[in-house]
Specification:
single chain, mainly alpha, Growth Hormone, Chain: A, two-stranded antiparallel sheet, 20 helices, Major facilitator superfamily (MFS) profile domain-containing protein, MFS_trans_sf, transmembrane helix, membrane
């Protein structure tokens, strides 16, 4: 619904006769709230599990979408769709991804790629379906029917099952090999070098899900928790890549982990909410990473990508209608179909030893941005269809490779913190892009400036990441110099 909202957007412009900038706030707030509700959703998943949270999100979003059919102005739609449906979608989306990542290890990249390509398939189907519903029942009838369709997430959510604990024999404390602290942040291909732990005299790949369920169970007993699985406490829960590609993972002791959680809880002690939410919020919004130049550069890149990401989804349909192109919703369908293929392929190849994931990520974003700007030189359906194909395929990297590139750059133990901050930046940027493009149209009476802004920000987000190896080499030189001085 979010990616095909451009069909509704074009209808709202005519019906309410409001400015394009103000009308675009509906989808911008929808996206921003969906992303920003991540800490809330993660806290609920810890307490009640993926199944309950998904069902609650489906009920909330379905009710809000149906209520939107009664709206008489844009302000009402901003509340019902933007805020209400945004929270509901946030409660659906995070458990859906988490449910997949905890079930798979070796084939996690492929499994997650298949799971997230559902939005590509949905975009492919929903654009023409929404257009047909509006033609036959008006936008109010179409909104009510789509609200009912969202209720399908209830039986689907009820099918989510917790990961069963595997039979385990007692494992002694692993003897970890010495790690050079001066090189532990060096940029390296995590899938090229397997990290082995010496356990009971045998070499074995560190596998998180073999030990994490017991760890969570022990923690819950120690915390006195009666609810939830503590699933979001796993350091790999947001990681979409294969666990066999992690080059090293150092397990922390339970006491040390509990101390860390107690420190996180103290930071948010003033909040009138549960302990789980305080810990999740503190961990996801810990700003200590903001002093890391590599993370700062990656955050700026994500912010720029998010500014331009939703502009093509919102404005392709009204832009095509102005050009007199027939069946403009099919362009959104093409973006969805190519995005579906792109997410699966990129998810599959991201763990191959010969793939440099950061380079692939950078190239995909750069191509997506350049193609978006070049779309303004197309005046017929087939030219825009070629753009839609290129953009849909390459922008799949933004969803599929973000977490695996973060782990390559920062390490698995910092993923939750880094991902939480990125969601905050993405949510803010999503509030900027579509309304700004609408304001540009209201000012210049042309969609070209908005697409140029989207193309420029997305391509720039890919180009600046080529500087990351430069930062890494400089950091390594400084560390080596400090080490020499310490020895002297």
């Amino acid at each position: 619904m979010t990616y095909s909202f451009g069909v509704f957007y074009a209808e709202f412009l005519t019906y309410f006769n409001e400015g394009k900038g103000k009308t675009a706030w509906i989808v911008s707030i929808l996206v921003g709230v969906t992303l920003s509700s991540g800490p809330i959703s993660s806290s609920f998943v810890n307490r009640w599990g993926c199944r309950t949270v998904t069902v609650a999100g489906a009920l909330l979003s379905a009710v809000c979408v149906v209520l939107s059919a009664l709206a008489n102005n844009v302000n009402t739609l901003i509340i019902t769709i933007g805020v209400g449906t945004g929270v509901g979608f946030g409660l659906i989306y995070l458990p859906a991804i988490v449910s997949v990542t905890v079930w798979f290890e070796r084939y996690r990249s492929l499994a997650t790629g298949i799971a997230v390509c559902g939005s590509g398939l949905g975009t492919f189907l929903f654009a023409p379906i929404t257009s047909a519903l509006i033609s036959n029942y008006g936008w109010r009838g179409a909104m009510a029917i789509i609200g009912a369709l969202i209720l399908n997430c209830i039986p689907l959510g009820l099918m989510f099952r917790p990961v069963p604990e595997r039979p385990r024999t007692p494992v002694t404390e692993p003897m970890l090999p010495k790690v050079d602290n001066n090189n532990k942040k060096k940029l390296q291909r995590s899938q090229s070098i397997e990290h082995f732990l010496r356990v009971n005299g045998k070499d074995d790949v560190a596998r998180l899900t073999l030990s994490q369920p017991a760890l969570n169970k022990h923690q819950e007993q120690k915390m006195g928790s009666r609810h939830g699985s503590g699933i979001m406490q796993r350091p790999d829960v947001l990681y979409q890549g294969s666990m066999t590609s992690i080059s090293r993972y150092r397990a922390a002791s339970i006491d040390r982990k509990m101390t860390k959680e107690e420190e996180q809880e103290e930071k948010c002690a003033w909040l009138p909410c549960s302990r789980e939410f305080k810990v999740a919020l503190s961990e996801m919004l810990d700003v200590s990473l903001l002093v890391d130049p590599v993370f700062l550069l990656f955050s700026v890149s994500n912010f720029l990508t998010s500014i331009g990401f939703y502009i093509p989804y919102v404005y392709t349909v009204p832009m095509s209608e102005k050009l007199g192109i027939e069946n403009p919703p099919y362009l959104i369908s093409i973006i969805g179909a190519s995005n579906l293929v792109g997410r699966i392929i990129l998810g599959y190849i991201s763990d191959k030893p010969w793939v440099n994931r950061l380079l692939a990520y950078n190239i995909c974003l750069t191509i997506a941005g350049i193609s978006t700007a070049a779309a303004m030189f197309c005046w017929e359906f087939w030219g825009l269809a070629m753009y839609a194909t290129a953009f849909g395929f390459t922008i799949g990297a933004y969803v599929g490779l973000t977490s695996v590139v973060l782990v390559d750059l920062l390490g698995l133990e910092k993923l939750t913190n880094a991902f939480g901050l990125l969601l905050l930046f993405q949510g803010i940027a999503s509030l900027i892009g579509p309304p700004f493009a609408g304001w540009l149209y209201d000012t210049y009476q042309s969609y070209s400036p908005g697409f140029y802004v989207a193309g420029g920000t997305i391509s720039l987000s890919g180009i600046i990441l080529f500087l990351i190896p430069v930062f890494e080499r400089r950091n390594n030189r400084w560390k080596n110099q400090e080490m020499v001085l310490e020895q002297i």
